[in-house]
Design goal:
By secondary structure, the chain is of the alpha+beta class. 38% of the residues lie in helices and 22% in strands. The chain has a 9-stranded mixed sheet, with helices on one face. A 6-stranded mixed sheet has the order 16-15-18-17-20-19. It has a 5-stranded mixed sheet with strand order 10-11-14-12-13, sandwiched between helices. Helix 10 packs antiparallel against helix 11 and helix 11 packs across helix 16.
């Protein structure tokens, strides 16, 4: 046949405008799409050959070629894949053109709603992304099943042409005539060797077939002695393979050195330090995927912006998108890595995933396997686990809190804390239970801003005396996580500052009752002096060496009150406090000898401020405190 002209529908320009401006967010993606199409075409030819009983020869070394020509402003993408006949060329390449923009837009909507349609393959939009950079496109193709080839020419406007051509080799070549440069876009850059190499390595580095290009450069001519001849040059060329083809995440783990994983991480995730740990995951079955997960060895700036967290996504070794947040649960925001699967449906631009069950399955599977790996590391290399925990322990606790306890079983055995008996190391909850005293029911904790601050709490004295361990919660998220955890193996968590008379023995209760009657005047004076600050003043059985302590009446720790107040600065979250007095301390004995009620009240205010300091709280009235302190120092 001669040249056949086919008319696009009237909406063609609107359609291309929709596709280019509304679907794709960056122009450079066109090269990825065309290379992916070329790779798919080779896949189809190899599959057809393997199932043809020898009728179709199997191509031994399939290749994809990129051929830039700066003088002609053209870029050719050439493959030796399955090729296309006339009907396939019209139906596959012309599909969106003859669908019309309104129908096209409607089918995009339907595909998104159904969650399971790969509309790239359905509409051939990958090819049309080339019009983002090209003012004209020529396709020359020959099907593996036909003797003749065809040429397709389009400028993306009202029409395109198709004609027969003589073509010796099976496959397809696409020639892009690049648009003229302007202030907004330097289209000529897509003809530069290093730009092409960068785009291939960014998006298509792991396409399974070699992507080749001839690099041309000029060198000085040499004289007989091998020295450069000034101002005389000769053109040299070198054939280079731009992609590595075999992804590191698909290699056998035993064949990859740790140093190779480290270099891959630094090169691909732009870090100057080796990762602290990595996990390689290979899942095959109804849903198959590979994942390579890294834990950075330092807190990187980007981990503070959790909205930008996620894993890179590949499909069939082709880079699809960076930071796919749907592949990670929120609390694992600090992880870097990638997922590669052939079982995902992608939207029109391959830049966003359609919501589907496969994504949820992959995310949950990665979470479970990563946490299982951490548990194994904790058991076998506790020192390395501690390095990870010191950096990212709060994130794991956040995972318990943000899930309202639904991840308790998954994460509870990863929690470790310093404690009264283990200030220089960490103890996990399982070990705490093993070391509990006979008859002890609860897991005790004290919370504050640091281990040093918590160590000063007067309430610890009773636990030291009774040889009971107390976990130290020195991170803001600790108490929130423990509240969500609720208990560990049926043992409840209890703050050491929690006021609970039910914990006292009958002997202790009788003793406190007797002391309260005996020293009623002193207690009444102290309550009167502190009536604006505390709801009660009582004797304590928990204090040994300290004269005083401060607790919240409802059991909420003072540290939790501080955290809640900082989170809600406009709300009055002041809890009712109780000042506890050590009746055996020399200071109280001196107070009990005073006959002057006003002096007792002054002592009370000093003791209250001392309790604030010991509990890591700010003195509320510094002027009154210094006046009283100076007054007693001058006596």
């Amino acid at each position: 046949m001669g040249i056949e002209r086919k008319e696009f529908q009237a909406e063609s320009k609107e359609l291309l405008n929709l596709m280019i401006n509304s679907i794709y967010s960056n122009r450079e993606i066109f090269l990825r799409e065309l290379i992916s199409n070329a790779s798919d075409a080779i896949d189809k030819r190899r599959f057809l050959a393997l199932n043809s009983n020898g009728k179709i020869p199997l191509i031994e070394k399939p290749e994809i070629w990129l051929i830039p020509n700066k003088d002609e402003r053209t870029l050719i993408i050439k493959d030796d894949g399955i090729g296309m006949n006339y009907d396939e060329l019209v139906n596959n390449i012309g599909t969106i053109a003859k669908s019309g923009s309104k129908e096209f837009a409607q089918k995009i909507k339907e595909a998104k709603e159904s969650h399971d349609v790969d509309i790239i393959g359905q509409f051939g939009v990958g090819f049309y992304s080339a019009f983002m950079v090209a003012k004209k496109i020529i396709i020359e193709t020959k099907s593996v099943n036909e003797e003749k080839g065809y040429r397709f020419i389009s400028d993306g406007s009202e029409s395109y042409t198709i004609e027969d051509i003589d073509k010796n080799d099976v496959g397809t070549s696409i020639t892009l005539f690049l648009k003229d440069d302007n202030d907004e876009e330097n289209y000529s850059s897509y003809l530069d060797y290093y730009t092409i190499e960068y785009l291939v390595q960014k998006y298509s580095n792991y396409v399974r077939y070699p992507i080749k290009m001839e690099e041309k450069h000029k060198e000085n001519k040499k004289d007989q002695d091998g020295k450069d001849i000034e101002n005389e040059f000769e053109e040299k060329s070198e054939i280079k393979t731009l992609n590595s083809m075999i992804p590191i995440w698909k290699k056998n783990k035993n064949d990859v050195k740790e140093s190779e994983y480290n270099e891959f991480y630094k090169n691909n995730f732009h870090d100057y330090k080796d990762p602290l740990h990595y996990v390689s995951i290979n899942v095959e079955g109804m849903l198959s995927y590979n994942a390579l997960i890294f834990i950075p060895s330092h807190l990187r700036n980007e981990v503070y912006n959790r909205e930008d967290a996620g894993l890179s996504l590949y499909a069939k070794n082709v880079f699809i998108m960076d930071k796919c947040k749907d592949l990670l649960p929120h609390y694992l925001y600090f992880l870097e890595g990638l997922v590669d699967s052939n079982d995902l449906n992608l939207n029109i631009s391959r830049e966003m995933l359609q919501e589907n069950k496969n994504i949820i399955k992959i995310r949950n599977n990665i979470e479970n396997k990563f946490i299982a790996n951490l548990k194994e590391l904790k058991e076998n290399d506790f020192n390395k686990y501690k390095e990870i925990y010191l950096l990212y322990g709060p994130a794991l606790k956040y995972g318990i809190y943000e899930s309202y306890g639904s991840k308790n079983e998954l994460l509870k055995d990863l929690l470790v804390f310093k404690s009264l008996k283990h200030k220089d190391d960490f103890i996990d909850l399982k070990t705490y239970l093993k070391e509990m005293k006979e008859g002890q029911k609860d897991i005790y904790f004290a919370s504050g801003r640091s281990v040093e601050e918590i160590s000063l709490y007067p309430e610890l004295e009773r636990f030291k005396k009774d040889d009971i361990d107390v976990l130290f919660f020195d991170k803001d998220v600790d108490e929130f996580a423990i509240q969500a955890l609720n208990n560990y193996d049926s043992h409840s968590f209890k703050s050491i500052s929690e006021f609970n008379e039910n914990d006292l023995t009958k002997e202790e209760k009788d003793n406190l009752e007797s002391l309260t009657i005996t020293y009623k005047r002193e207690l009444d004076d102290m309550k009167e002096a502190l009536k604006e600050k505390v709801s009660d003043v009582k004797f304590s059985t928990k204090l040994v060496d300290s004269p005083v302590s401060l607790i919240n009446k409802d059991g909420l720790s003072l540290n939790m009150e501080k955290i809640l107040s900082s989170l809600n600065p406009n709300e009055n979250l002041k809890m009712e406090k109780i000042l506890e007095i050590n009746p055996n301390h020399q200071i109280f004995k001196k107070i009990s000898e005073l006959k002057d009620d006003e002096k007792i009240k002054e002592y009370s205010k000093l003791l209250y401020n001392e309790a604030l300091i010991l509990n890591g709280l700010e003195i509320e009235d510094k002027e009154e405190f210094t006046e009283l302190l100076n007054k007693f120092l001058l006596k």
